[in-house]
Each structure stands twice: as C-alpha cells, then as structure tokens.
Design a protein that fits this description.
Chain lengths: ~325, ~250
C-alpha cells in the first residue's frame, strides 16, 4: 500500500518558486494499479519520482506499507521498489542477464539464484531465456527491450512498481500486446503499481484507479468507471474526451449487467461471453440491430441475457458502480 | 562467427603495414644501407631502451592522471569548474609539443626528467578531454535508471558510467599515445636521450643510415604501441558498447 499525504514539491527557479506538485494526497491499496494521468508538466512524473525519492518532497509524507519513506536510506529504499522508465534505460554494456541481475546483486543474492530468477522472469515475459540471457540490449527490438526493462524491475520481487510511461516508446501494435501481457502478469503478481501515462485509453485499460493531475494538483482520484461516468469537473470531462461513455464500455463486464432470466438464443447463433466487456455487446447491438443478446459461459452454455435497458441502467447508475475487479 | 569479422577488420591495417615493411626492408638490403645501419647496432639497443622508458613512464603516468582527472571533472560537484578547466586543457593542447618541451626545459632544465614531464603534459591533455567527454556523453536516462534501482553513486560510476564511456576513453588514450611516441624523438633536443639522438645526429651529419637507424625503430615502436592499445580497446571495452565488435541481429 502506498499513501501520499499532502505531498508538495516546490522548485526554486530564477523566476521565483515554482510549485510542481501541490498538496497531493491519495492512497493506492495493495495489489492495485494506479495510473497518474495528465497533460505534460502536470506534476505526475515528479509525484512518481518522489515515491522512490529520486526527487525529495518539499513537504508532505509518503508511506509504503505504513512505513515513512523519509526514515529509510533512499538507496536502500529504491532497491525495494521496481522502476521502469520510458527510455527503458537498459545498460548497454551489460547482457540481458546482467541487467536483470543488478538489483539482486546489490542485495547480495547468490549467483545461482540470480540466474534462475532471470530465466523465470524472461519466460514469464514470453522471451526464450536460452535465446536472450546473453544478448546485449543493442541486439533487442524495442518491444523486447521494454520486456527486459520490466523483468529487471521485477528482479528482486519488489512489492511496489513505479512505471514512468513505460510503453510510450513502443509502437502502437506492440504496445497493446505488452499492455495485455502486463495485465495478465499483474493479475498473478498483484504488485502495487504506480504508472505514469498521458494516454487516457491506456489509463482506462490498465488502471484500478486513475489520478488525474493538472498543474500540480490532483483533480480527481477514482476508478476508471467512476472517472468516466462522473467526471469531477470540466477539466476532467475535457481530458477524458466526449467519447467517455464508449471508453467506459471497455471496463464493464457482461457478467455485471446480465440477468439470468429469459435467455433466448438468436436464430443466427450470435452470443456474447459472460467474461466479455460491453464493447462487444454494443457492437453486436448495432450490427444486428437488436436489443438483447444471450450470454454463454466458457463451455458455450447459455447462462443469461443482456439487454439494452440493462446496459443503459448500468451506465446511468455510476453512483452504484463498484470498482470492477480485473 | 561474427567476432572473427571484427578481428579481421582490426588486423587488416597491420597486414598492409607488414607488406610495406617488407618492401622497405628489401630496398634497404638491396641498396646496402642495411649493412651500414647495422653498424649502429649497440646504439640502437641502448637508445631504444631509453626511448621506451621515456614513453612508458610519461605515457602510463599520463593515463593514470588523465583518466582520474577526467572522471573527477565529470562529477556533478565539479560541474562549475569543469567547463573552464576543459577550456584551459584545450588551449594547452594548442601549444605545439616542441613548444611544451622548450617550456619544460626553461622550468626544469635539461635531461630525461624535463622530457618526461613535457611528454606527460602532451599526453595527458587528450586523455582528460576524452574521459570527461565520454562520461558526460553517457545518456542521462541510464544514470537515472541506475539511481532509481538503488545503485550508490560509486557503483553507478564503476558499473554504468565508466563502462559506457570506455570506448571514447580508449580513443583518447590511443590518440595521446600516438602523440607521445611521435614526440619522444624530440626529447633528445632537451637532453632526454632516446632514438632522437640517431635521427637528429643523422640529419646533421647527412648520414642516411644513421638517421634510418633511429627512424625505423621509432616507427616500429609507434606501430607496436598503437597495436597494443588497439587490442586493449578491442578486448577491454564491453561487447555491448564496442563498435569494433560486430553485433548480432537487431
């Protein structure tokens, strides 16, 4: 769990003091992904860098699992926090294995354990260990390098992961793939993740909670569904875009709006899976010009029905919307 | 294998030099100059030893001091003085080496030590410059990543900054040693001894064999030193940041 309490950063510049982060307070529960979102220069990266004390806060407190990060040596602190940056920052003089080994070596793990860990991590990130361990970063594609960057951050199994636009430099197609892989991995690992992004779609996809920043202030802190359904002010509304309802559909699962009664299969056999999100439902409603669809489970058995009324009710009732666990 | 391609490329100049050397040797033998040169056998042995000592002492001292100074200037705490110091280094580099030796003679008198100090200064400057520039050129995000992972400043210097700057540092050392070996014969003019004695005396006496008895070992020494540092650069700079060593697919 990460808790920020009135965190402020003021830079002294020649034009006078410049407040980069202004009394920001929020809490990320254990195992959740929080995306810090906002236009450039809004203080989201500075906020992230204050958590591992690459930037020292001017005032305010940051707690990780209840411990005041002020009271720990910053160098020691950083070894317990995974860190991924947009430029990836793999050390070109070291092989993939050596890059992954950096933090475990600082923590004095034995060589065999480090090697095993590197192999496991690469395998988890869909990189064949035998193929990649002894390569140099210059011999990797952008997507591969970014995966190794994530593996390196996870090497010592830190409970907290800080990611500064980690997939920003990857091309759009690969970005989707890496995002999906990361989500799948995160479902297993349940790290507490802080993730800086300027891309609302990425935020909606990745986040359990989104923190929207403007000019150093936290404008709204809410789960994606609530942020999109009930933007706190005009700035947030403008930032999430006029298609915010469409974006919401991604994060609502068919299971949430389906009713068990009255399930009929269509003659053309079109159904949705209970695990699909509402984007597929909306697409089929429009394509087939229908108001209801049968829902099936993994085995194909009909388990319920989703109707246009149910979807509309769900979208209207943002008040009742609980966080959708991924 | 890819590494063999790299090796072949780095050896190629020496093959060319070898061929040229054989042609020169053939000309010398054919004209009889070779036999005249052999009369200076004892001088060659004695002066070569002196010459090698001049190069080795001034060169190794310059590498140690130059790298240390370059690293020192690259530290964040030194940022205020670094650029000014590098400007001074640049100006000092512009002084011809003969001028530097003459200045040393005025300050320190004549003999081997003023020559060694003069050579040391001339060799030092490119090393300082390249070490400083090489470390400064290490991308900031690498240092940021290293810091964010919990590496202490000393670790970052040793494991990230120096390895990534090493190729440029070695380039500076190679240039500096070429200057050193090339200047060493002039040391004779301020009483430093070395193979310059045969060269300059040969010129004065218009004794071609004597001149060549000094010039040829000097040239061979220069080639040997460059070969040595070239190999060191090839093998000591990590493969991932060594343009001389071919990479696999990207």
């Amino acid at each position: 769990m990460i808790r920020l309490d009135g965190v402020t950063k003021v830079y002294e510049t020649k034009q006078g003091p410049l407040t980069s982060v202004d009394h920001v307070s929020f809490e990320v529960p254990h195992g959740e992904t929080c995306v810090l979102l906002g236009p450039s220069g809004c203080g989201k990266t500075t906020t992230l860098r204050m958590i591992n004390r690459l930037v020292a806060p001017t005032s305010g407190k940051i707690f990780i699992d209840g411990h005041d990060t002020d009271r720990v040596d910053p160098v020691e602190l950083r070894r317990t926090i995974g860190y991924v940056i947009q430029q990836i920052g793999l050390f070109p003089n070291m092989t993939v294995a050596e890059n992954i080994a950096v933090v475990p070596r600082l923590l004095k793990w034995d060589t065999a354990r480090i090697r095993r860990r590197a192999q496991d991590l690469l395998a988890m990130l869909a990189l064949e260990p035998a193929d990649f361990l002894d390569r140099y970063p210059g011999e990797l594609s952008g997507g591969q390098a970014q995966r190794v960057g994530v593996a390196r951050a996870l090497a010592a199994d830190p409970p907290v992961l800080l990611m500064d636009e980690p997939f920003g430099a990857v091309d759009p197609v690969n970005r989707e793939v890496i995002q999906d892989e990361f989500l799948r991995m995160q479902r297993e690992l349940r790290k507490t993740v802080l993730f800086v992004s300027h891309d609302i779609d990425e935020a909606v996809k990745m986040a359990d909670r989104i923190a929207i920043f403007r000019a150093g202030r936290l404008e709204q802190y809410a789960p994606p569904d609530e942020l999109l359904g009930r933007p706190a002010n005009e700035f947030v509304k403008g930032f999430v875009g006029s298609d915010r309802t469409l974006k919401r559909l991604r994060r609502i699962c068919v299971r949430e709006v389906m009713s068990a009664a009255g399930a009929r299969t269509r003659r053309d056999g079109a159904t949705v899976h209970a695990g699909d999100d509402l984007r597929r439902v909306a697409t089929l409603f429009l394509e087939l010009d229908t108001d209801e669809l049968a829902c099936v489970d993994e085995g194909g058995a009909v388990v319920g029905v989703v109707t246009r009324e149910a979807v509309a009710a769900r979208l209207a009732g943002a008040d009742m919307a609980a966080t959708t666990p991924q | 294998m890819t590494s063999r391609d790299g090796e072949r490329r780095s050896f190629f100049p020496y093959v060319v030099l070898g061929v040229i050397g054989l042609v020169v040797l053939w000309v010398l033998v054919a004209t009889g100059t070779w036999n005249d040169m052999l009369k200076f056998r004892k001088d060659i042995a004695y002066l070569t030893r002196q010459h090698v000592l001049l190069v080795a002492i001034s060169g190794s001292a310059a590498i140690v001091a130059g790298v240390a100074l370059g690293i020192g200037l690259s530290r964040p705490g030194m940022a205020r003085y670094a650029e000014a110091t590098i400007q001074i280094v640049n100006m000092a580099t512009a002084i011809p080496t003969l001028g530097k030796l003459a200045l040393m003679m005025i300050v320190l008198g004549i003999g081997a030590w003023p020559a060694i100090v003069g050579l040391w200064v001339a060799t030092l400057l490119p090393i300082v410059r390249n070490t400083y520039a090489g470390i400064r050129a290490v991308p900031a995000h690498l240092v940021d990543a290293a810091r964010g992972m919990g590496m202490a400043p000393r670790r970052i210097l040793l494991d990230v900054e120096i390895p990534n700057a090493l190729f440029v540092v070695f380039a500076g050392v190679r240039t500096a040693m070429a200057i050193n070996v090339g200047t060493a014969p002039i040391a004779f003019l301020i009483g430093g001894g070395g193979l310059g004695e045969l060269i300059f005396t040969g010129i004065d006496l218009q004794d071609q064999a004597m001149m060549l008895a000094g010039a040829i070992p000097t040239a061979l020494l220069a080639i040997a030193v460059d070969f040595l540092f070239g190999q060191a650069q090839y093998w000591l700079v990590p493969r991932g940041v060594n343009p001389l060593r071919e990479r696999g697919s990207v």
